[in-house]
Automatic annotation (TrEMBL):
Primary subcellular site in the record, as a coarse category: membrane
UniProt keyword terms in alphabetical order: ATP-binding, Cell membrane, Coiled coil, Hydrolase, Kinase, Magnesium, Manganese, Membrane, Nucleotide-binding, Phosphoprotein, Protein phosphatase, Stress response, Transferase, Transmembrane, Transmembrane helix, Two-component regulatory system, Virulence
GO cellular component, one term: plasma membrane
Protein name according to UniProt: Signal transduction histidine-protein kinase/phosphatase MprB
Membrane topology: Multi-pass membrane protein
Subcellular localization: Cell membrane
HAMP domain span: 179-230
PROSITE patterns (alphabetical): HAMP (PS50885), HIS_KIN (PS50109)
Pfam families cross-referenced by the UniProt entry: HAMP, HATPase_c, HisKA
UniProt-recorded Gene Ontology molecular function terms: ATP binding; phosphoprotein phosphatase activity; phosphorelay sensor kinase activity
Cofactor: Mg(2+); Mn(2+)
Coiled-coil region list: 263-290
Database matches in PANTHER family: SENSOR PROTEIN CREC
């Protein structure tokens, strides 16, 4: 935004300066020509006095013309009557129709010629108007000033310097104005980015009116979200208490029954019910775990949690292999608790349903999208064909089916997903893709 504002101001000011300074530069050149013409008019009057007073003394006229013609910009010539151009004195001898007209009419004239202007002034001799055959004519050629002559060049440099100063001032003003717009927005963006990671103070309302209104609205929204989260946490705590209390009562009553198939069946039903309640409470507490932004180092959390299961694999005489090609930390869009729950759910399924002694292989690799791919292979019986084990409440072998559902929910919420396939070890392969934070 700041660069755009400076670019627009620079373009507009540059166009305005060009529209003003170029005509002014051309006018300066025209004024320089007018100044030369004015000075040439004075020289004509002085030359006329010298010519009329010299009479037949052509040498005095020549000496005077040599002196005044030393100045650049004008050329003064005295044209005496007659067809012989050698009688003329000055750098531009010879006559044309304009000279003849001035001598015949006895009137001075100013004509535009190539490269400047030309004065033609007939000289009256002896205090009265002489005849055309005895009237000399003074010709003064005024050359148009060149583009690089000192006076014009100096004026142009002053104009250019003035234009640069104005442009620099406009850019400085635009930069200051842009800062007043951008800095409050950056502070607002930093405040929004910090939400969910750490407690932050509300951003101060400053800048343009629209930015202040946005800041106030964001502060109100954050306050409302925090209030709702507090209510949700209180509600979840109450829900957990309300659900677990009757389950505990039922479990005590079941344990009071005599040993037998009925007691075992009721115990299994209670285990399933308790797992469902744990899942419901866990999902209800997701916002408490994640905050506004969920992020964790997937490499560190997943690697540590996989190694947590290695002792159990050794106890069950299982071949347990863990490989990771993700060496650097990779932030994924999930909390550390949810990542641990994914590993626990997948490996718990393997250790529960795959026979003891069967192999387990876990691999961790970076994904093309910047996240991670967690793959779990087992040497168990595999998954029944056509069974949707991701949908909660369905599975083979009497499981509640929550393990893969938990992994699928976490993967989907992170921007990834879960896929099932046959494993090279002979059992099932579960591939969990976690999106980047």
């Amino acid at each position: 935004m700041r660069r755009s504002l400076i670019s627009v101001v620079a373009a507009v000011v540059a166009m305005v300066l060009l529209a003003m300074l170029v005509p002014m530069a051309l006018l300066l050149r025209g004024y320089a020509l007018e100044d030369r013409i004015s000075r040439a008019a004075l020289e004509v009057q002085a030359t006329e006095t010298v010519v009329s007073g010299a009479g037949d003394d052509r040498g005095a006229v020549a000496a005077y013309l040599d002196r005044i013609n030393r100045d650049t910009g004008t050329e003064t010539t005295v044209l005496f009557p007659g067809d012989d151009a050698d009688t003329d004195i000055g750098p531009d001898p010879g006559e044309d129709h304009r000279v003849v007209d001035a001598r015949t009419t006895g009137r001075a004239r100013l004509d535009d010629v190539a490269g400047g202007a030309e004065f033609l002034v007939p000289v009256s001799l002896g205090g009265s108007t002489a005849g055309a055959d005895a009237t000399p004519v003074i010709r003064v050629v005024v050359h148009e000033p060149g583009w690089t002559e000192s006076g014009i060049l100096r004026s142009w440099l002053v104009l250019a310097l003035l234009g640069l100063v104005l442009l620099a001032g406009a850019l400085a003003l635009a930069d200051r104005l842009g800062r007043s717009f951008v800095q409050p927005i950056r502070a607002l963006a930093a405040y929004a980015g910090a939400l969910g990671h750490r407690p932050v103070e509300p951003v101060a309302s400053r800048g343009p009116r629209e930015v202040r209104e946005l800041s106030a609205a964001l502060t109100r929204l954050v306050g409302r979200i925090e209030t709702l989260l507090e209510r949700e946490r209180a509600g979840v705590a109450d829900l957990s208490h309300r659900l677990r209390t009757p389950i505990t009562t039922l479990r005590l009553r079941v344990e009071a029954l005599s040993a037998g198939p009925e007691r075992d069946r009721l115990g299994a039903d209670l285990d399933e019910l308790e797992a469902l309640v744990d899942h419901v409470v866990r999902e209800a507490r997701r916002s408490e775990r994640e905050g506004l932004v969920a992020a964790a180092d997937g490499v560190a959390v997943l690697s540590e949690r996989v190694r947590f299961w290695e002792p159990l694999a050794e106890e069950q005489d299982r071949s347990f292999a863990f490989t990771s090609t993700a060496s650097a930390p990779v932030a994924v869009r999930a909390s550390a608790a949810d990542l641990e729950a994914v590993v626990d759910a997948l490996l718990d399924n393997v250790f529960t349903h795959a026979p003891e002694g069967s192999a387990v292989a876990v691999s961790l690799a970076p994904s093309a999208a910047g996240g991670l791919v967690l793959t779990v292979d087992d040497g168990g019986p595999g998954l029944p064909a056509g069974l949707d084990v991701v949908r909660r409440g369905t599975s083979g072998a009497g499981s509640t089916g929550l393990g893969l559902a938990i992994a699928d929910q976490t993967a989907t919420a992170s921007g990834g997903g879960l896929a099932l396939d046959a494993s090279p070890l002979g059992g099932a392969r579960v591939v969990v893709t976690l999106g980047p934070a």
